[in-house]
Structure formats: structure tokens, C-alpha cells
Amino acid sequence: MLSSDTKNSNNSNYFAIRSQRVVTSNGIIAATVIVKNGLIDSIDTYDCQLQCPVDDIGNKVLMPGLVDSHVHINEPGRTEWEGFNTATQAAAAGGITTLVDMPLNCIPVTINKKAFDEKLAAVSDKLWVDCGFWGGVIPDSINDLEALLEAGVLGVKSFLIDSGIAEFPNMQADDLRKAMPILAKHNVPYLIHAELDCTNNEPAEIGRSYQSFLASRPKSWENDAINMMINLNREVKKKGLDCHVHIVHLSSAEAISNIKKARAEGQKLTIETCPHYLTLFSESIPDGKTLFKCCPPIRENENRHQLWQGLKEGVIDFIVSDHSPCTPQLKHIDTGDIEKAWGGISALQFGLPLIWTQAKEKAFDLTDIAYWMSAQTAKFIGMDHIKGHIKVGYHADFMVFDDVTEYKITNEMIKHKNKITPYEGRTVTGLVERTYLRGQIVYDNDKFINKPVGQPLLKGRY
């Protein structure tokens, strides 16, 4: 815990934290990190002498704040599902200091400047961490895309399949051909929910069966969708344009080989996956457990190991939460009807301990975690000049992490609005003790400090 003197000095934003294990892009070092006016002013030796207050956290880890670029906050319009206050509190409790909000599940969906202005109005005094925003593009909003990008969204997202939200229909190939040159011009990523049903079969009967649900959304849907985006990007490149296509929440490891080939051609193609695809597997999911439903689905254990290999090889660029919450009623927890349940995993604050628990068993270390969950995500959203690293001149966004404590996740721990998660009862290693945003403590040992100090992050304005 910080001394009262150190906590008070934090208000003046001139203080230092020293640790035997500071996670930097050059490895884990013993160091003292000096903070002035919200920025990392210098990084000195562990035993340096300073005039400012110093908090020595000993062998606890000082890590960069995580950057989570895939969070469904659902405000305005569906705040019974989540909201900026609770989502950003959960983020802070999980060591996340920057997140990016998705354009759907809110009302209105963020497909034009007017809707984006409404969203920006909704965040006032609610952000416990910094927050950027993705826009969306649907067939009827392509003409609004230019103005939406100029308004400050960091990029846009589309679905290639029914999104589950009537106001956010999927794009067809001809729609994509119109949107991709605009995104290439603005040099922002085009986020794609990559599932494509080419069969036109009648919807499968699923009921309570997880295996039926898994079979209803096969790997081929993802593989075909990714291949379509690769082919469309070839068309764009032939016109002399370079569209950055980003595949969200990859679950099919079968797609990895074609992703490698596309990159070898020079395509700008990035890939993310999520904790649920790296820590859960279909063979262990009982029927009727609707909290495990998400799209694409959680697949087999062998597929899970192949995703880890994709991370190791650098084919998968980073890990994000895809926090997609809803009310318990929409999850049909009581009936166990997987077919009717809303698809989405709620686990925003637990991503770090979930991944660390698995990663250390596979001989990865905390520099790998910081790379996948801070450095690479900051680079993806265009903020790696100020976020994602413990470096001089960067925002003083970091966390104190106890990497050895084991505990069971309980619903009582949850900070997001609806206290449900498929990870209840799961034993994990690693506890976020304290989170700093631009040098200010926002979370300290299960308490939120002072008031929200997060800021909206708009493209070209930070």
C-alpha cells in the first residue's frame, strides 16, 4: 500500500515507484520510475536517491497498463447491459488503462457522425480509464463513412454475417469494395467480424447442446470469411491502395496458414484473439451453460493450443477481451437454452490473470504478456507513441501486479455491471493491486480512488 504521504504527493503528480521487476520493452529490470505531470519523466537505477516521495514495491511487478481495443460498452441506449462507468471501472481493476469501445449494441449504433456525437456526450464524467472509439460501417452508411472518420474514430468495424443487432446489418462483397478504398485513404484499420455462411442451409436446432452450437458455426465460416477479405484486399492493392484489414477475435486456427501467405504477399493484415479462445475449450463446456456462448464459438482443445502457437510465431498479433456483456435474462441462464442466449463473454477485468495463468505454463514470461496486451494493441490503435510501454515521455499508465497470488474468481469480485462470467470458480494466478492512469491512482486494492479522470481519445487529437 502507498503511504499517506505518497498518496497525497500523487495529487501533485511528482513521485517515483521502484521495483525489482519493472517490465520494459528491453526486458524485466530493477529500476525506479519517476513520474512528473502525468508522464514518465525518467527511469533510474533501483537504489537512486531522489527528492520526491518514493514507493518501493519490492518484488511486486510494475507493468505497463494494458490496452484493450475490443470492448462492448453499450452506451448510450443499452446501459442495462453495461455502460461507461462500470466498464471502465472493471478495466481499471484489471490493469487496463486504455480501451476502445465498439460501435454496436449501443443505440444508436455508431455508423455516422451524429451517432458518434451522441456517444461522446454520453461519456462525460464516466471514464475511469482513457477510451477511444471504433465506428461502424453498414451497407446504408458507406456515404457517411468519410465524415465519421474525420470526426475522430480510430477505424471502423463491419460484420460479414448477421450481427444479432437489426440496426447493424452485415456487408456483402460489393459493399466492402466501396468501403475499403475510403479506409485505405484515411490509413485506419478495417475491423472485420469474419464469419461467412456460404451454405444457405436452414438454421440448426441447438437447444441446450453446446456441441450442436459449435457445429452450427464451423471453422469453415471463419476460414471462408478471412479468405474473402484476403482476395478483396488483393483487388484493392492492384489499384495502388493499401487497406489495413484486421480480423477480430480469431477462433479458427485453420486460418493461420492463409494469413501467413497473405502477409508474405505484402498485405496489411493483423489478427487478434481473446482469453476465452486461449483458456477454454469445447470438450469441457457442459450443455446448458449459456455463459460460454460467444461468436465465433469456443473450439476444441487442440485448436486452442494451435492459437497459442500462432501467438508464439507472431501470426496472431495480440490479445483483447471482446467483453460483450448483457443482462442475465438475455443469457437465459435459468433455462440453459444456448440457442436463444445472447452470445458474448463477460470477463473484462480478468484477462490478465487468465492469460498469465496459461502463459507461464507454456514458458512465456511477463514481457510476452506486455507485448501482446499493451505494446501491440497500442500500436494497432495508433497510440504507441504515448501508450503501451514504460518509457520516458510516455503516459504514466501502469499497474502494480502480484504475479504469484492464486485465488478463485467469484461473482462478488466483478466490477462490470451484471455480475456474471463463465470464469466463476476458476483458479487463476496474478492479482492487480493498483492501477495508475497518467500518474494518478484510479484503483487501489479493490477500491476506486477519487473520481473518473479518463479522457476520450480521438484520432489525431492526442
UniProtKB/TrEMBL annotation:
* One biological process term in Gene Ontology: purine nucleobase catabolic process
A cellular component term, taken from the record's GO annotations: cytoplasm
Keywords (alphabetical) are: Hydrolase, Metal-binding, Zinc
The entry's function note states: Catalyzes the reversible cyclization of carbamoyl aspartate to dihydroorotate.
Protein name per UniProt: allantoinase
Q: Which NCBIfam families match?
A: allantoinase (TIGR03178)
Q: Does the keyword Zinc apply?
A: yes
Entries under Gene3D superfamilies matching the protein: Metal-dependent hydrolases (3.20.20.140)
The domain of life is Bacteria
Amidohydrolase-related domain sequence ranges: 61-442
Co-factor requirement: Zn(2+)
Its pathway is: Nitrogen metabolism; (S)-allantoin degradation; allantoate from (S)-allantoin: step 1/1
Give the UniProt family note: Belongs to the metallo-dependent hydrolases superfamily. DHOase family. Class I DHOase subfamily.
GO molecular function (one): zinc ion binding
